[in-house]
């Protein structure tokens, strides 16, 4: 069993991965230890370069921080559009689907503009708006606080919200994809939501452009091998060839090229 010290350090790491930044003072108060003790913990946690201490706080290093939504949405638009069109072909009129947060799932929502009678269960407000022009659609949103500038809703209430529904399809992305197929996110809450919608849907659709392969993020959950459909715009570098070969029957390459 891990020592109390190790348990505390694991808890600190989980908290930083969830929130992005936490002050040393807040950690000392939370764990009822001295600030000197927390500083020693932080020094150990910062050795792997995932976290760093800056001016009385501990935060994720820059390479593990998420990119603002509008910037993500504006990158590789051609590739994401190709992914969206390919995914939309798998979803018929009248389907019920979960759509998670992210710019690539938003591309799927935009491509579904010609579908009718959809029931869309989502915490992605941009996706909801993209599908709201078709009056035959039914759009269901969770309550809670909107996270800006991403225009999405996260938290424990969202997890409970998705748990109350079943769907034909779950459409979701990933912040990064490791060489072993691990799906990475910047927050554990995003991992939990993805796991919930996959569990409650008949078909899981992972949509990810080529840049997500090899991109690092701290929170791990699920594996690409467990997805029913994997839709990408083009193949990444040769490091990932064995991984993609292992899922070839479930892989759809849309051949979108970045601008």
Write up this protein.
The chain is built from 10 helices and 15 strands. The chain has about 260 residues and is α/β, with parallel strands linked by helices. The protein folds into 2 domains: about 5-65, Winged helix-like DNA-binding domain superfamily/Winged helix DNA-binding domain (Arc Repressor Mutant, subunit A, Orthogonal Bundle); about 70-255, Rossmann fold, CATH 3.40.50. Helix 6 (about 105-110) links the parallel strand 4 (about 95-100) and strand 5. Helix 5 (about 75-90) crosses helix 6, helix 6 (about 105-110) runs parallel beside helix 7 and helix 8 packs parallel to helix 9 (about 190-200). The longest helix is centred in the first third of the chain and has 16 residues, at about 5-20. The radius of gyration is 19 Å and the shape is globular. The termini are far apart.
Secondary-structure map:
Blueprint: H1 4-19, E1 21-23, H2 24-31, H3 35-45, E2 51-54, E3 57-60, H4 69-73, H5 77-88, E4 96-99, H6 103-111, E5 119-122, H7 125-131, E6 138-140, E7 146-147, E8 152-153, H8 156-163, E9 167-172, E10 176-177, E11 182-185, H9 188-199, E12 201-207, E13 219-223, E14 229-232, H10 241-246, E15 251-253
Parallel strand pairs: 4-5, 4-9, 5-6, 9-12, 12-14, 14-15
Antiparallel strand pairs: 1-3, 2-3, 7-8, 10-11, 11-13
Helix pairs in contact: 2-3, 5-6, 6-7, 8-9
